[in-house]
Amino acid sequence: MAVLNQRSMALCLHFAYTFGLCFFYTSAELQRFEHPTKVDKSLSFLVVGDWGRRGAFNQSQVAFQMGIIGEKLDIDFVVSTGDNFYDNGLTSEEDTAFEESFTKIYTAKSLQKQWYSVLGNHDYRGNAEAQLSPVLRKIDSRWLCLRSFIVNSELAEILFVDTTPFVNAYFTDAEGHTYDWRGINSRKAYISNLLKEVESTLKESTAQWKIVVGHHAIRSVGHHGDTKELTKWLLPILQANNVDFYMNGHDHCLEHISDSDSPVQFLTSGAGSKAWRGDIKGLNREGLNFFYDGQGFMSAQFTKMEAEIVFHDVFGKVLHRWNMVKQLHQSI
């Protein structure tokens, strides 16, 4: 493993002290964060997406229920699937929307854990670099948002992928929106290198559970439907490397779809605030197990042999529960 420089070591010690995690980075690899499991070697976390609206559109109510479920499950961290701040991301590191949509909303004791976040297309419409800035972590130490990175918990390896640059429409038909593409000098090279990193990471992973997180759906029957660029470029890599779950937001709903050609389960959790009631395309319903067009979030629990995925609505009601036994998964 590469030797840490002094700055990286300082950051490592800070995160280790605050959250019990540490990250390692080299210029040729994605940043990797080590997040230990519980003493009993189990892991649990919440997944929420498309939320940042200063508490409006039931964001506060969803946050309240997340706090209750988070305490019940003794969660280790929270995953955000992007579109963290509406309508157009943050304007700067000093934008008050960060505290008004995040710090002052997710106040429950159980949610004072590390948040791992990716950027969504709405985040790219603002100052995307602001969300990636360590300045925000000084304001709220829970916050960690990068373009693409890895979280390793021994039991599970979670690969966060920056999916927005994959979507052609944001470059060819921006519909009047302006996107912050700083850091992506060559889209073609950026995507090519990212796909190589994803494939390499998944091939080398020895984790019991392999999870990939992105903002855009690979499969969805919601408003946006399937993301054809991800179906073409990312999905084959997931299928070839025994990925168990792909988690995303983007469509403002909750849904679970099973892949017809592999064990991959597509899990959409993009209902953190404003939902799109009745907005269902249904163009490709193959493998659809569950769809809910209201607000809510998802919880995930893992042991060495079992996984349990649960979708909760804005009142905390269980809408859909799905259990997976690893031995059965491996025998498929």
Topology of this structure?
Layout lengths: L5 H14 L2 E3 L6 E4 L8 E6 L10 H15 L3 E4 L16 H7 L10 E4 L3 H4 L3 H5 L1 H6 L3 E3 L3 E4 L3 E6 L7 H4 L14 H18 L4 E6 L13 H6 L1 H6 L4 E4 L5 E5 L6 E5 L18 E5 L3 E7 L3 E8 L4 E8 H6 L1
Parallel strand pairs: 2-7, 3-4, 4-5, 5-6, 8-9, 9-10, 10-12
Antiparallel strand pairs: 1-2, 3-14, 7-8, 11-12, 11-13, 14-15, 15-16
Explain what the structure shows.
It is a single chain. The protein has 332 residues and is an alpha/beta fold. The chain contains 11 helices and 16 strands. The chain has helices spanning 6-19, 59-73, 97-103, 121-124, 128-132, 134-139, 169-172, 187-204, 228-233, 235-240, 326-331; strands spanning 22-24, 31-34, 43-48, 77-80, 114-117, 143-145, 149-152, 156-161, 209-214, 245-248, 254-258, 265-269, 288-292, 296-302, 306-313, 318-325. The strands form 2 sheets. A 9-stranded mixed sheet has the order 1-2-7-8-9-10-12-11-13. The chain has a 7-stranded mixed sheet with strand order 6-5-4-3-14-15-16. Helix 2 links the parallel strand 3 and strand 4 (77-80). The longest helix is centred in the middle third of the chain and has 18 residues, at 187-204. The relative contact order is 0.14. Fe cation 1 binds at residues 50, 83, 86, 252. Residues 44-253 form the Calcineurin-like phosphoesterase domain.
